[in-house]
Amino acid sequence: MNISTSILFLIGFIVLIVGGESLVRGASRLAAAAGIPPLVVGLTVVAFGTSSPEIAVMAQAAFGGQSELIIGNVVGSNIANVLLILGLSAMAAPLIVPRRLIRLEVPLMILVSFVMLLMALDGRVSRLEGGVLCAGFLAHMLFMIHEQRGTMNVSPSEEEPDRAYRGNWKEWARNILLVFAGLALLLLGSNWLVDGAVALARALGVSELILGLTIIAIGTSLPELTTSIIAGLRGARDIAVGNIIGSNIFNILAGLGLTALIAPSGVQVSQAALRFDIPVMIAAAVACLPIFYIGHRISRWEGGLFFGYYIAYTTYLILTATRHHTASQFRVAMLWLVIPLTVVTLLIFVYRTARASRSKAESSPGVSQAS
Q1: Which stretches of the chain are DSSP H helices?
Q2: How far apart are the first and last CA of the chain?
Q3: Which of 143, 150, 268, 290 could form a disulfide with 346 if both were Cys (CB 3.0 to 4.6 A apart)?
């Protein structure tokens, strides 16, 4: 059992790497050929494709009546996307954050996170509320399509590469095949990893909520992790960041929305998730704004900060699951010492960045007049 699980983990990891490489390569080339900004590709095609494992797990859990697994997967995946994946991706290669993300997508991610909390306050996300989330997803997609049409109408400079690709249908076919092969390999690899992890976790007697928040959340987020790290290392950093933000929006609006619609009585939300895990998800989303705003990039030390918080969060879940006597002290230390100090530090960096930008803008007219 242990040997087969280890083999499953190893093969799944290799398949994920190959799939991530294939997806990023094909999506980047198609974006360049069609004149579509890589950020939009990251927010749509890549984000939806890498979120497919979450949808598959949640749909299966909905028909099986495993609501804690659904909530654990949504919340745990969103926390892992920001703290673990963005953290590791930035540690591998500092990430440039497009201004569009700071203006539109990050505020939307924060908004839908709060909406999820409000819907869950009564202990359930009903089928009607699931329909509202799905409607929000459709509205967001229509807005992006409308905005992209406007961008393409005013971008005649893209005609030359577009024409080159039209003349070479083999390149189009090869890149489309790369995208579909990458998505298929990501799904296959993540499923193998999750299957092996679930077998091990259930043998240890872990609860469904903890299972969803940790092993399944990390397992279904492995496509995002693989894709974002590979995209960052290959220089496609718009895809690396857009993939994470787009996946988080997709998980709540489309993932939780569709699951609540198909579940016979909606999705039940436990008090444990309401008291701690959903607020942590919201805090991780809110933390993106100041960090993204500082220099419009995620540096290595900021990536390390995200990663450190994910380790602390996972440590708390393990302490809670094992009913360790230090769990309450650990939680108090995080809530009243570590997190406040981090917030103060980030606010100071934001203030200094804004002040430096203002000073630079004020000195620019003087420089131009002197010249």
Answers
A1: 2-34, 38-41, 47-50, 52-63, 67-79, 87-92, 99-100, 106-120, 127-153, 159-166, 169-203, 208-211, 217-233, 237-250, 257-262, 271-272, 278-293, 300-321, 327-333, 339-370
A2: 75
A3: 290
Tokens of 17: 């790497």
Tell me if 333 is assigned to some domain. yes
Spatial contact of 60 and 194, defined as CB atoms under 8 Å apart = no
Positive or negative, the CA dihedral 352, 355, 361, 365 is negative
In angstroms, rounded to a whole number, what is the distance separating the alpha carbons of residues 257 and 116? 10
Indicate the pairing of strand 95-96 with strand 267-268: unpaired
Q: For 2-16, how does the pLDDT look when each residue is reduced to its tens digit (9 = 90+)?
A: 667 667 767 876 786
Whether the Cβ atoms of residue 47 and residue 243 lie closer than 8 Å to each other: yes
Domain CATH for 80: 1.20.1420.30
Report yes or no: 211 and 72 within 8 Å, Cβ to Cβ: yes
User: Is the pLDDT confidence value at 159 over 70?
Assistant: no
Find out whether 192 and 8 touch, Cβ atoms under 8 Å.
Answer: yes
Q: Is the pLDDT of residue 196 over 80?
A: no
Range of the domain at 138: 39-149+191-354
Domain count, the chain: 1
Q: What contacts 17, CB < 8 A, 6 or more positions away?
A: 226, 230
Q: Residue 63 has what pLDDT? A: 75
pLDDT score of 42: 67
pLDDT class for 269, splitting at 50, 70, 90? very high
Please report, for residues 24, 88, 122, 151, 185, the alpha-carbon distance to residue 182 in angstroms, rounded to integers and kept in the order given.
8, 21, 40, 28, 5
* Closest C-alpha among 90, 58, 56 to residue 74: 58
